[in-house]
Write a structure and sequence with these properties.
Blueprint lengths: L3 E6 L3 H11 L5 E7 L2 H8 L6 E4 L9 H7 L6 E6 L5 H6 L4 E4 L4 H18 L13 E8 L2 E8 L3 E7 L2 E6 L6 E3 L3 H7 L5 E3 L4 E4 L3 E5 L2 E4 L6 E2 L7 H10 L2
Parallel strand pairs: 1-2, 1-3, 3-4, 4-5
Antiparallel strand pairs: 6-7, 8-9, 8-12, 9-10, 11-12, 13-14, 14-15
Length: 249
């Protein structure tokens, strides 16, 4: 893991202190400032470069955490939401945050979020040798639009998941709220997709590991996807089972 600069924004000092206990066990991230006032935090990041902002949503102020993110203009800074309310998870992932941590977060869960931060920053750096060659993989697929079939270039890195339904393939993208409808078969597209990046977890669905959040109660949760996706029998999906053994949350 590289060395990163971070700040914490939370209206409760006890929540900040709890995070600092975790950061003391992690040498690669340096917390350069702590704030309970969102406006002081905004003033700070406008003149200081930071790699990560961990912030609460409910700041008990005239601005909440989501509005604070909108007011911040930094292009490369990553965000992790730290909240006591699960209801903010969807809003966070729709804004492309690295992770959403629920208070009080355990060190194990915190460490998982830091690994995700490291991965996202490394892979987003242009020209970085660590950048994944699969990020440039794509294919033209027949997609129905306004009642007509057209050839459309689909970048695999943008796919959150695919599913087969009523003889068609539904392709869900992180970059487009509209679901693509293709006449390609589920099997043929699975053969196109990089196997180490896409895991089939039921008879008719597969997801991009880049957007994986968690697996609980037999359901897969993905970033940028509001619904939880039901998984099939793990015994029938060895690759997915092996993935969970090293990526469970």
């Amino acid at each position: 893991m590289r060395n990163y600069r971070a700040i914490i924004l939370d209206d409760q000092q006890t929540s900040i202190d709890h995070l600092m206990e975790h950061f003391q066990k992690l040498e690669q991230v340096m917390v350069e400032a702590e704030f309970t006032d969102p406006y002081r935090a905004l003033a700070y990041v406008r003149v200081n470069l930071v790699d990560l902002v961990i912030l609460d949503v409910d700041l008990q102020n005239r601005i909440d955490g989501l509005e604070w993110m909108s007011a911040f203009s930094g292009k490369h800074t990553k965000f992790i939401l730290y909240t006591g309310y699960r209801q903010f998870e969807d809003d966070g992932y729709m804004r492309n945050v690295v992770d959403v941590l629920l208070k009080p977060v355990s060190y194990q869960r915190f460490a998982t979020a830091m690994k995700r931060l490291d991965t996202e920053i490394r892979l987003s750096m242009p020209g970085n040798p660590a950048q994944d060659p699969d990020d440039h993989a794509n294919e033209y697929l027949n997609v129905r639009k306004d009642g007509k079939w057209n050839r459309r270039l689909v970048w695999f890195r943008e796919i959150t998941h695919i599913r087969s339904s009523n003889g068609y393939l539904l392709i869900h993208l992180a970059t487009d709220p509209e679901v693509l409808i293709s006449n390609a078969s589920f099997r043929s597209v699975m053969e196109m997709l990089p196997k180490r990046k896409f895991k089939q977890f039921s008879r008719s669905m597969a997801f991009n590991v880049r957007f994986f959040h968690s697996f609980t109660s037999g359901k897969v949760r993905l970033k940028h996807v509001r619904e939880e996706l039901p998984a099939g029998n793990l015994a029938n999906h060895a690759s997915f089972r092996e993935f969970l053994e090293t990526n469970s949350v």
